[in-house]
Amino acid sequence: MSTSTVLTNFETWKHFLADRVSQAKKMGLTEDTISNLAFEIGSFLDEKVDPKNDEESVLKQLWDVGDQEERKTIARLMVKLVEKA
Question: Which CATH number is associated with domain 3-84?
């Protein structure tokens, strides 16, 4: 599945992220490490990828107005969201 396909549909993106979080846990990564990786991914997406749907647009707007700590919170919340999916 290509990155553009994953990012087009928010549910697909959540499943993709949930799979990656699951893999990271199986590899023994800690919650903090996973959250830090989610923050790095969020930073990359913010800089390089235009939102493809309404949910991504809202996340980008929140990311853009947040400071670094708030962005880390958004990243942690995304991890928690996909863990519940």
Answer: 1.10.760
Among 70, 85, 83, CA closest to 34: 83
Q: pLDDT tens across 25-37, in order?
A: 999 999 999 999 9
**In angstroms, what is the C-alpha Rg of the chain?**
12
Nearest 5°: the CA angle 66, 68, 79 is 85
Concatenating the DSSP letter of every residue in 32-72 gives HHHHHHHHHHHHHHHHH----SHHHHHHHHHHHHS-HHHHH
Q: How confident is the model at residue 49 (pLDDT cuts 50, 70, 90)?
A: confident
User: What count of residues does the chain have?
Assistant: 85
Q: Which residues of 5-41 are buried (b: 16+ CB within 10 A; e: fewer)?
A: eebeebeebbebbbebbeebeeeeeeeeebbebbbee
